[in-house]
Specification:
The protein is about 45% helix and about 10% strand. The relative contact order is 0.17. The N and C termini lie close together (about 10 Å). The protein has 2 domains: about 140 residues, 3-Layer(aba) Sandwich (Rossmann fold), CATH 3.40.50; about 60 residues, DNA polymerase, domain 1. Strands 3-2-1-4-5-6 form a 6-stranded parallel β-sheet, sandwiched between helices. The longest helix has 18 residues. It is of the alpha/beta class. Helix 1 packs across helix 4. It contains 10 helices and 6 strands, in the order E-H-H-H-H-H-E-H-E-H-E-H-E-H-E-H.
């Protein structure tokens, strides 16, 4: 029976992908690199920043990585003065799941500073039971974020579900030995997500509640 629900942030809960792509392109130009295409930029959403940059620009010197990371952070803080909206149905579904007694947590490639800033801006810093960020553990698809959350809440992989929009989210779940649910409206499409055998690939977030209910009732 599921107890611990672990959500990715960007592209799963928060409709922030276009903002991320814009800031990545601006950051690349600021350090004299060609801006990545929208497709290439969307492809690395979900990875920690260092992994994302070295995937986009193989062979980058450490100094360039640091400069581009700083530039990205500045652009994102400026662009995100008004926080990106949640996808349709996210707020209502999360509240219903919380009322049903599930532990709601976040595992994200965002930095701790970035996640805390957006949680505080949305007055959600006390809503989630726990959060993990790539810069304080290990980036996706390494399972450390999930392992730490399971340990914190004394839940087994069988009692935990990862919900995300990228193959990195679902691969992380596989590496942690837990089930996953994919959402196909984010960075990666259902074809890519299905390779990791999620319980479902959903077109809208509100269906997460139904899938969790079916698992609880042994219908999945």
């Amino acid at each position: 029976m599921p107890k611990l629900l672990i959500f990715d942030w960007d592209g799963t809960l928060c409709d922030s992908l276009s903002r991320i792509v814009y800031c990545l392109r601006c950051a690349a130009e600021s350090v004299g690199l060609p801006p990545p295409s929208e497709l290439d930029a969307r492809n690395i959403v979900g990875l920690g920043m260092v992994d994302a940059l070295t995937t986009l620009f193989p062979g980058m010197a450490r100094e360039q990585i640091d400069a581009m990371r700083d530039s990205y952070s500045r652009h994102f803080v400026e662009a995100d003065r008004e926080p990106s909206p949640f996808f349709s149905g996210v707020s209502e579904t999360l509240c219903r799941l919380k009322d049903q007694g599930y532990l709601l947590t976040v595992a994200t490639g965002k930095s701790r500073r970035g996640l805390d800033r957006v949680l505080q801006a949305r007055q959600l810093d006390r809503f989630f039971d726990g959060t993990r960020c790539a810069d304080e553990t290990a980036g996706k698809p390494h399972p450390l974020m999930l392992i730490e959350l399971m340990k914190e809440f004394e839940c087994s992989p069988e009692e935990s579900i990862m919900i995300g929009d990228t193959e990195y989210d679902l691969a992380m779940a596989v590496n942690a030995g837990m089930s996953s649910i994919g959402v196909s409206y984010g960075a990666h499409d259902s074809r890519r997500l299905s390779q990791y055998r999620p319980l479902a690939c959903l077109d809208k977030f509100s269906d997460v509640e139904l899938i969790v209910k079916n698992i609880k009732n042994n219908n999945l």
